[in-house]
Amino acid sequence: MSLHIETPLVASRPLSLASGLDIWLKLDALQPSGSFKLRGIGAACEAYARQGKRRFVSSSGGNAGIAVAVAGRILGLPVTVVVPETTTERAKQLIRQEQAEVIVHGKAWHEANALALSLMGEDDAYIHPFDDPLLWQGHATMIDEVAATGFKPDAVVVAVGGGGLLSGVCEGLARNGWGQVPVFAVETAGAASLAASMAKKQLVALDGVNTVATSLAAKQVCQRAFEWSQQRPVYSHVVSDQAALDACEQFLLDQRILVEPACGAALALAYAPTAELKRHQKVLVIVCGGVTATLDQIRQWRAAC
Ligand SMILES: *Cc1c(COP(=O)(O)O)cnc(C)c1O
User: Fold this and answer.
1) What's the CA angle centered on 155, arms 64 and 18, to 5 degrees?
2) Which residues cross the membrane (predicted)?
3) Which CATH number fits domain 9-36+134-304: 3.40.50.1100, 3.40.50.1970, 3.30.565.10, 3.80.10.10?
4) How many angstroms separate the alpha carbon of residue 262 from the centre of ligand 1?
5) What tens digit of pLDDT does each residue of 136-147 get?
6) pTM for this one?
7) Cα–Cα distance for residue pair 83/113, rounded to 1 Å
8) Residue of the nearest CA to atom 1 in ligand 1?
9) Which H or E run includes 302?
């Protein structure tokens, strides 16, 4: 039994009118954890539990940490999430309400992560937020579900942080015989690590990241995501924080679903397609979701942009 749910695939009239394309939404914002991450992380946690692991350890104060906490609660195994001091009260509360233990340590993520790794015992499984083949296999189920409906997209739009989602989408497309369906990989300007790697044709690490799309703030994408970008049609696209935030607000009006700016980045391309995307008619947008930004927060960011 999987820990994630099968999510709706819906045609979006508002987005189709705005873009002039046929926009279809895979609504993974509706996962019990509020983001697609439960697919891969749920699958990984189930696999580690089968291997005999008795506790899950994470260092993500975002949707990955929340997904690990949800997975642990459903599987009846304890979860420890170590987060840096910068993590919002809201994120900590969302993790705690899933019965996970939250330890606050360090000024930045690498310090929290170092403590998390030092806590690892023999029966513990460390759950990486994006760089694990088990995660990608789990994320790929969203494409299996689309294929099972009989709908075949001409292009797929997806947000990219560390590239776990992109790797899962590409794996799902490949295993359904859709290896030539182009993927539009969207990042915000302050965290465009895939764009930088694709430009250089080698995996590069950014010096720093700066974006309101905190779930996309990875200095470097995983090796697998970069490989996919070199092996199949992948188009990199970069949007401003402003465009991602505007898309969140518009999407809330249009579809009545609140998502993080990370997801807003992908939606921004769907609302305002490039000439390249316009060459395709039926466009599948992965609505990856995210629960760490409130509407107040999104509006404050927008006012400051
Ligand atoms: C994690 C996350 C992403 C990015 O996924 P990666 O696998 O890190 O590329 C995008 N949107 C949301 C809401 C996320 O939680």
Assistant:
1) 90
2) none
3) 3.40.50.1100
4) 7
5) 999 999 999 999
6) 0.97
7) 8
8) 215
9) helix 295-304
